Amino acid sequence: MAIIQRELRHELRSRKAWLAIVLYTGSTVYISYLGLQGYTDTATHNAVFWLLIIFISMFATSGSFAGRDSEMFYIYTLVSPSRFILARLLYNGIFLLSVSLLAFICFQFFVGFGDTNQVLFLAALLLTVWGISSLLTMSFSIASKGGGGFTLMAIISFPLLVPLLITAQHLSEMAVAGSDTSGYGGYVTVLLALDGMIAALCYLLFPYLWRD
Amino acid sequence: MIKRDIFSKSWWKYLCIIFLTYTVIAGFLMPVPALEILHETIRNLYFHVCMWFSMMFILTVSLVYSLKYLNKPNEDYDIIASQSSYTGLMFGVLGLATGSLWARYTWGAWWTNDPKLNGAAIALLSYFAYVVLRNAMDDEQKRARISAVYNIFAYAMMMVFIMIYPRLKEVDSLHPGNGGNPGFNQYDLDSHMRLVFYPAVIGWLLLCSWIASINIRTERIKRHLANQ
């Protein structure tokens, strides 16, 4: 808990970081709004939205890790790796969820999905972003140990993100434009299973990245 | 410094040659059921499907040795894990190539938006990322540990995407046995084809292990020379 509090305080204190993420979200949504002029079908909007979500997540996660090496060393001596990764997963999940919610609101405001089933769409967003945040947390830990930085993180995380994204896209396609939503159960189960599996793997494997 | 283990035995390599020679000869000459659309391309079953079986097998070996490495750091485990996954990558590329050829003559396109194809592409991309990740690190122990962690992660994601996802009822697929389609074995894999298919699977699995064992032994020698 203390770690989450500390992270939150750290994040809130650095207004610049927050402003950067909000600005990034707003401007990418606006660019996609400009690019989507003339495309009226909701399937295209849906696809673009999920692309935005990946890029915003990558940007937000890497920002929250950058320049923290000296602090990390201090944390190493205080807590056990499994407690640390749990706190980190929770914090990053909440953080990315709020950022993606912001992206969703902006996207609704500028572009819109038509007649959306909000509950189903938000459920898809919640489940997917939670998975993405755990996956990116782990990929970033691997990449930073590998000394490769952002490029390496992108290379190792993109292929692993695809299962989540494809499922999310199928699920949210049901939610937009009032199409038939009867078959959502299978996709929700897959998303839940993926989230659970990713979290379990992070919890079990993180201690091996920690040891140095 | 030469290790005497199953890799240096030769009986299973002769077995591999016999099985694969049989596969190629019988695979092209034995009668096959005359089916709509598939026609003679059904013979690709002896090659395409076996590539994926071999890939899954050797990647599972790689996973097991990655787990063993994390449990007990031993340089040899790292060599086996890494070389096995490189071999698996090669078989994955061959599986895509044979599958692409088959798709062209039955479904009409080299590449289709099929959940199995997406899964295969993702699997290959994540194992290419494994190669990149390994090359990014110089320190041997660190490289071994971190790539083992990534290997386990990638394998788990791949299994979900290749084995579970295409079997969902909601997913459309052109592959037999997926998305509500009947599997091959249910109706048209007749006894003639089984006579070739089972030896083919064993033959390709042995070839896969053979290639992996050569890679592993070469890497052992390289590391040994580098340490001198």
Brief summary:
Chain A is an all-alpha fold and 212 residues long. Chain A is built from eight helices and no strands.
Describe the structure.
The complex is a heterodimer of chains A (212) and B (228). Chain A has helices spanning 2-13, 15-35, 42-65, 69-78, 81-110, 118-145, 149-175, 184-210. Chain A is mainly alpha-helical. In chain A, helix 3 runs parallel beside helix 6 and helix 5 packs across helix 8 (184-210). The longest helix of chain A has 30 residues, at 81-110. The radius of gyration of chain A is 18 Å and the shape is globular. The mean pLDDT of chain A is 81. Chain B has helices at residues 11-29, 45-71, 75-106, 115-135, 140-164, 184-187, 191-227. The mean pLDDT of chain B is 82. Chain B is globular and about 60 Å long. Chain B has one domain: Four Helix Bundle (Hemerythrin (Met), subunit A) (Up-down Bundle), CATH 1.20.120. Chain A binds chain B through residues 138, 142-143, 145-148, 152, 155-156, 158-160, 162-163, 166-167, 170, 183, 186-187, 190, 193-194, 197-198, 201, 205, 208-209, 211-212, and chain B through 70, 118, 122, 125-126, 129, 132-133, 136-137, 142, 145-146, 148-150, 152-154, 156-157, 160-161, 164-165, 168-171.
Short descriptors:
heterodimer, A: 212 residues, mainly alpha, 8 helices, 84% helix, 0% strand, B: 228 residues, globular
